[in-house]
């Protein structure tokens, strides 16, 4: 489950969350410079991951099998974090191919693990996390404000 509150006209993302059902972890972010991870069973904060960006987080997606988190940002970047690593090293990849607000970033679940992202400009990008740039690009309608991938 992911929630997106469209506040792009106001300059912020509001609150962005992604729920990891297998582990009971809730990833949260938005108009802050961290991704906060909550353990919903114990009702406590587990970890704060610095985004390393000056822009808001607009989309989150996680995979419990590989401990990865993918964040889409308001500056168009897609950032991949490994929550097992030290905070200073946990950002393992940054893609800067979108030129506008990322509406959705999606991490395909195990075993494929590919990343899909869509910006408000309608460019859909497919990434293999082992590669430094997108492997495929599609153009859809411009002006997107919401999108979900299943």
TrEMBL record:
Record organism: Micrurus corallinus (Brazilian coral snake)
Cellular component annotations (GO), alphabetically ordered: cytoplasm; TORC1 complex
GO biological process, one term: TORC1 signaling
Protein name per its UniProtKB record: Uncharacterized protein
Matching SUPFAM superfamilies: WD40 repeat-like
Molecular functions per Gene Ontology: protein-macromolecule adaptor activity
A Pfam cross-reference name: WD40
């Amino acid at each position: 489950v992911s929630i997106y509150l469209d506040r792009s006209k106001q300059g912020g993302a509001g609150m962005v969350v992604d729920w990891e059902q297998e582990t009971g972890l809730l990833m949260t972010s938005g108009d802050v410079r961290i991704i906060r991870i909550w353990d919903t069973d114990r009702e406590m904060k587990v970890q704060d991951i610095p985004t390393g960006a000056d822009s808001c987080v607009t989309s989150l997606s996680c995979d419990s099998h590989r401990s990865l988190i993918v964040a889409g940002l308001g500056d168009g970047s897609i950032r991949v974090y490994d929550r097992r690593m030290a905070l200073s090293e946990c950002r393992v990849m940054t893609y800067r191919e979108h030129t506008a607000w990322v509406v959705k970033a999606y991490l395909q679940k195990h075993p494929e693990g590919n990343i899909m992202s869509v910006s408000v400009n309608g460019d859909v990008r497919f990434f293999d996390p082992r590669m430094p740039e997108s492997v495929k690009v599609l153009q859809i309608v411009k002006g997107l404000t919401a999108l979900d991938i299943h």
